[in-house]
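sanity check this record:
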Amino acid sequence: MISWEQITENNSPSKQAGAAVATDFQPEQQAEIGGNPDLIDSTQPVRAEDKRVVNGCSDINQLAPFKYPWAWKYFINANKNHWTPLDINMAQDIYDYKHKLTEAEIHLYENVLSYLTTSDILAMRNIGLAVMEKMTAPELQIYQARQVYEESLHTWTYQHCIESLGLNQGEVYNRYRVVPEINRKIQMANTRISSILRNDIDLSNSDELHNFILAYMFFAAVFEGVWFYNGFSPIFSLQRRGLMKGTAEQFQYIMRDEVMHCGFGIRVIQQILVENRITLDLKAIKDMWEEAEAAEASYAHYILKKPVLGYTANDHIEQFRFIANRRARQLGLVEPFPNATCALPWLDEQANIRKEKNFFETRVTEYQTGGLDWD
């Protein structure tokens, strides 16, 4: 069984929160490695020990020997969670939406979709355009290529829900522009992408590398690790009452993808810290968590303007804090919200469903995950 808690804590470069990274990488080595193709001797065999996450000088086109076999395992495991939205029957959701949901529940459902439609495209652009091309070990890039596909698949899922229910696409997609509580979260992500999606970025510069780490940390730990993980819970709360079960089932598959994205990102960040002499700016990280919490609180109060049975804005906000503490521990950092409690004890169960596709009936009956404990 793979547990992200165990993986990230046992393999953390330091048990001390915010500590400077391991010192087995010598400064003179760092000066030699800058991704300069002139340093690559095409006649010499590639050695695993020469690979680095960023600023490496080994052959990016040669997969093995692996330096990061865990990255290849992520790729293999990701392919066990293969599905498409067309596998899910939305007939009951259509009936629920038209005849069962209250006005408050429709407001909740539509605005969750509005936020997610744009968010997964941002996640796709971040990995595909801002992060993957900076990796200098192919086993890392291969999983990230799968991640780009999965973010596209998630966007298809939201579009499938919107089309199935006959929602006004322009109105749903444009809410992130006109609803401040949604726009606030999107703009935080845009700022992080813009800071690293530049042609002139130089990761051999310690300040640039530190900014890259913080941006990657934001997307892995906050955006996907908490905002997405916690973001599906309003729909799961409807599912628990027998409503919108088709949408919720798709979100369960997405949730498992996102947990893997989060776990992989944390591993990459840890490895960068091992390979470079970087001391994290703990105040900047604290500010990042606090800004994310404020945005999430505003969003929660907007989508839950009116009461929904079994789910409140306070539940949503407290669960954000609880999951944020989990991600911080996985990073080897202090908990940003030390007194947070688990407001939604059923949420982790949603990530651990086992489904197996019946290809002869072309529908999902039970999904085989390969025995993974997804979080």
Notes: DSSP finds 14 helices and two strands in the chain. Residues 1-35, 356-374 have pLDDT under 50 and may be disordered. Residues 69 and 373 are 19 Å apart (CA to CA).
